[in-house]
Design a protein that fits this description.
The protein is 71% helix and 0% strand. It has 251 residues and is mainly alpha-helical. It has one domain. Helix 2 runs antiparallel to helix 7 and helix 10 runs antiparallel to helix 11. The radius of gyration is 23 Å and the shape is globular. The chain starts with 10 loop residues before the first helix and ends in a 13-residue tail after the last helix. It binds zinc ion (2 copies). One zinc ion binds next to helix 4 and helix 7. One zinc ion binds next to helix 2 and helix 9.
Amino acid sequence: MIGKPKYRLETIPVWDGVQSDSECFLCDLMDEAEKHGVEFYLGSSVMNPETRVRVNEYGFCEHHFQLINKSKLSAQNMGLICDTYLSESRSKFEKAFNNVLNAKPGRKTVKAVEELSIKFASREKGCLICSQMKSRLDRYVYTIICLWDSDPLFKEALEQSKGFCLHHYEILVKTAPSVLGAKEANDFIKAITNLELKNLDRIAEENLWLTQKYKSENHDKPWRGCEDAQHRTINKIVGKHRVLDPIAKVN
Ligand SMILES: [Zn+2]
Ligand SMILES: [Zn+2]
């Protein structure tokens, strides 16, 4: 392993995940992290002045604002978030709105609208829930790599697992060289790639059987657990959580 540990190990959730028989337990852990994020920002944290400042400054991406929107947790807390986020947005956009209203016809109007559009785009950067999820993902990925390197039982359990979605597989192999020495990283990357390829073959077969099962001659044959293979295949290909860039300073 290279240098001192960068993160605290998240051994318990990672061990639970690897034994869960999921197509990608990192996707499952991200499901949980997302749920916690929504609960956190709609919970009592909204009364905490520091959190309020962060919500006003960064807010949420469209996906996470809509998850908050759908939540039944607290209408009042949602209202409080809206109140200050909207007023902060108005003040950030004020100048650009005025420029649109005061622009002369032609090129100046086009430019003013373009500038407003840049302001809108920068306001949507730096979602707090995406940032929280990204930092959890970093710790989980780090833990998987460290446990694989240090615990033979974990290595075996991972070998028996169904691997990861392609998105999380990519993150694991990209991160390994910054956590392990060259030889160990190479071993890890090869082991994870073999695991991934084996499971892509498996899921391809399961998906194929699902398509065959709908043919009349196979009507009476067993499903062999492939009833939901199409959903699992899609999740395997794209994963469920592509978090946006973590917090970027918004002008
Ligand atoms: Zn995944
Ligand atoms: Zn987000």
